């Protein structure tokens, strides 16, 4: 059995490969304990002490170091210069996957749908209906007031033209993130909605994208996905938004320098409606907080 110390240093090396120069978390003994308990270990919650329960619920925070910023900037520049060739190299390096077709075909999405149970599909449909009900009620009515004769003041809400969704990979498919990001964008009237996720993309995510009307899905993750989305559909142009669940390298790709086709706007998953609307008078003011 691999010791907790070995797991710790292996994890450190992986983080360093991603450009993380330091980790700001727990004392090293606690960190090793956390890592040892995190590797697919079944934990009896009731047998844990209050402190152990607190540790289990924590995410190790990686410092936003200059090395991460440099790594992300290098990725952005490389993707801008070399395009899809750079994407395939990063997929092999970070995701350990060889990607032949970057865009997921309609046939692949249909096949993914066939592999899912009817019970899960029904549950997703119910979730979409609930999300639609809430966010439809949240839409802002237009305001048109004549403050004095000949003077009219208006507040008009318009959707952004294009939206890019980033869905993280990992051990659990975050299809709920797809539902909670894509549905408000559709309700708001965004004309173009695309999705990027690290390969291989889970069937649940592909089906959720289809269910919510996402036009295109791409087999690409990380900072390189954010960079390439700007080139593909000008999502990072002034009128567009990137929506994602939080992840350090992706966040740095959206906030460091100028991405591939202009400055990116960013909205976290919990602020999904803020991403879908654009208020001219007070930008996104009525849509931001959930």
TrEMBL record:
Gene Ontology biological process terms from the UniProt entry: L-histidine biosynthetic process
Pathway: Amino-acid biosynthesis; L-histidine biosynthesis; L-histidine from 5-phospho-alpha-D-ribose 1-diphosphate: step 9/9
InterPro entries xref list: Ald_DH/histidinol_DH, HisG_C, Hstdl_DH, N-reg_PII-like_a/b, N-reg_PII/ATP_PRibTrfase_C
Main EC class the enzyme belongs to: oxidoreductase
Any one GO molecular function term: histidinol dehydrogenase activity
Histidine biosynthesis HisG C-terminal domain span: 2-30
Signal peptide: none
EC nos: 1.1.1.23
GO cellular component: cytosol
Record-linked Pfam families: HisG_C (PF08029), Histidinol_dh (PF00815)
Transmembrane segments: none
Keyword field: Oxidoreductase
Catalysis: reaction(s): L-histidinol + 2 NAD(+) + H2O = L-histidine + 2 NADH + 3 H(+)
Main function: Catalyzes the sequential NAD-dependent oxidations of L-histidinol to L-histidinaldehyde and then to L-histidine.
Family, as annotated: Belongs to the histidinol dehydrogenase family.
Name by which UniProt lists this protein: histidinol dehydrogenase
């Amino acid at each position: 059995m691999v010791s907790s110390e070995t797991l710790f240093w292996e994890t450190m090396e992986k983080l360093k490969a991603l450009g993380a120069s330091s980790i700001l978390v727990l004392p090293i003994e606690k960190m090793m304990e956390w890592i040892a308990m995190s590797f697919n270990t079944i934990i009896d919650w009731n047998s844990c002490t209050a402190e152990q329960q607190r540790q289990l619920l924590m995410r190790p925070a990686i410092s936003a170091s200059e090395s991460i910023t440099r790594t992300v900037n290098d990725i952005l520049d490389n993707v801008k210069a070399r395009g899809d060739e750079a994407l395939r190299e990063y997929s092999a390096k970070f995701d350990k996957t060889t990607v032949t077709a970057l865009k997921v075909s309609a046939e692949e999405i249909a096949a993914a749908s066939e592999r899912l149970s009817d019970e899960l599909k029904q549950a997703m449909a119910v979730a979409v209906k609930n999300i639609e009900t809430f966010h439809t009620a949240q839409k802002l009515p237009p305001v048109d007031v004549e403050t004095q004769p000949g003077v009219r003041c208006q507040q008009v809400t318009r959707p952004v033209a294009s939206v890019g969704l980033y869905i993280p990979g990992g051990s659990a498919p975050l299809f709920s993130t797809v539902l909670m990001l894509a549905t408000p964008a559709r309700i708001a009237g965004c004309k173009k909605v695309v999705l990027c996720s690290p390969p291989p993309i889970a069937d649940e995510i592909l089906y959720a994208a289809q269910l919510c009307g996402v036009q295109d899905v791409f087999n690409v993750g990380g900072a390189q996905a954010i960079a390439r989305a700007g080139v593909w559909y000008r999502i990072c142009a002034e009128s567009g938004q990137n929506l994602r669940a939080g992840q350090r390298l992706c966040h740095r790709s959206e906030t460091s320098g100028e991405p591939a086709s202009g400055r990116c706007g960013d909205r976290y998953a919990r602020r999904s409606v803020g991403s879908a609307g654009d208020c001219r008078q007070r930008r996104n003011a009525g849509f931001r907080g959930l």
